[in-house]
Amino acid sequence: MTGTASFQALRATLPPAKARLALRFVFQGLALAPEEFAARGHTLTRGEAEFLVRWQAEGMGSRVLERVASGDGSVRMVVGLADGERVESVAMPVGAVCVSSQVGCAVRCRFCASGLDGVKRNLEAQEILEQVVHARREMRIDRVVFMGMGEPTHNLENVLAAVAALKHEALISPTRQTLSTVGSVRAFARMAEAEVRPCLAFSLHCADEERRRELLPHAGRDPLPELVAAADAYGRRMGVPVQWEWTLLEGVNDSDQDVAQLCALLGGTRGYVNLILWNPVAGLPFARPRQERAVQMVREIKRRGILATIRNSTGGDVEAACGQLRRRARPEGRSVGSAHGGG
Ligand code: SF4
């Protein structure tokens, strides 16, 4: 992004204190009006005021092209990017927004709509941040989950830059930001060094190495025990337990043997298992287990000494739930951006 069309332009053009204030206003959904600055003890010069008028017109590179409200209060937004690509984000009434980090996804989990067409490109940090701004225009947001379209560790530098900006400029604590990933030992090491570190959700889905590879065909080759140990070490360093995510697919990963393998793999780690009943995606050959089966599994996992819960997805009636965000067609019919499903 160049010219006035970026948050960077605000930082580069205004004196530091005014730039910080301007970014706060943007993230709070307030107008960049001279009166707002004056009310906080900052008088804008004429040049600064004119610059801000231009910035308001073109500073945000993305636009909400479509907004679909769910019966449960969630809002799925199709966000058009400056180059014509599209991604999806979901604002949820619990005060959270699920953001996308890539256009598409290269992991191509078999049960997820987001990776159906592979990956098109990474999002810039600003494109991630703008999804939060759009969501804040919908409702109160004080939590960000990187669980939309894309594998965040495949775009780690931009995601970490967004995490830091969300802390400093949107005033969202890193303990209220969660990065959801299929895992990579190298990525966990990089995250541990970051200036601002998000909480971690690890998308496990299967504790059997071979079957996990079939379900998550491009999730990387790190052995599961190493991945789990690295994720656990990261969570301990953060002081925030890891969420071990498990999308439940009937007849695929919901057996007693699956539970036993899961508990053996997680033995000695901190954190808690999140079971997510699969949200249907048209054309994909899976079924959602019954709620009672999930309840049984939670009971058995807890009996083995590991915390577990069932995560209720929101927005399923408008395809906004985990695994349902997808690349929507551009007007000219070309396949474009989507959003991920808990991966
Ligand atoms: S679940 Fe996540 S990692 Fe897997 S394809 Fe979907 S978006 Fe990508």
Task: State the end-to-end CA separation.
Answer: 28 Å
The CATH topology of the largest domain is what?
TIM Barrel
Based on secondary structure, the structural category is: alpha/beta
Radius of gyration: 21 Å
Beta percentage is: 15-25%
Q: Please, how many domains?
A: 2
CATH class wording of the largest domain: Alpha Beta
Task: Look at the structure and give the mean pLDDT.
Answer: 91
Count of extended strands: 12
Dominant shape: elongated
CATH homologous superfamily of the largest domain - what is it? Aldolase class I
What is shown here, in short?
This protein is α/β, with parallel strands linked by helices and 343 residues long. The protein has eleven helices and twelve strands.
Description:
The chain is of the alpha/beta class. It folds into two domains: 7-58; 63-318, TIM Barrel. It has eleven helices and twelve strands. The chain has helices at residues 7-13, 16-28, 34-39, 46-58, 125-138, 156-168, 185-193, 209-215, 224-238, 256-266, 291-303, and strands at residues 63-69, 75-80, 86-92, 96-98, 102-104, 119-122, 143-146, 177-181, 199-203, 243-248, 272-277, 307-310. It has a ten-stranded mixed beta sheet, with helices on one face. Strands 5-6 form a two-stranded antiparallel sheet. The longest helix is centred in the last third of the chain and has 15 residues, at 224-238. The protein binds iron/sulfur cluster. Iron/sulfur cluster (SF4) binds next to loops.
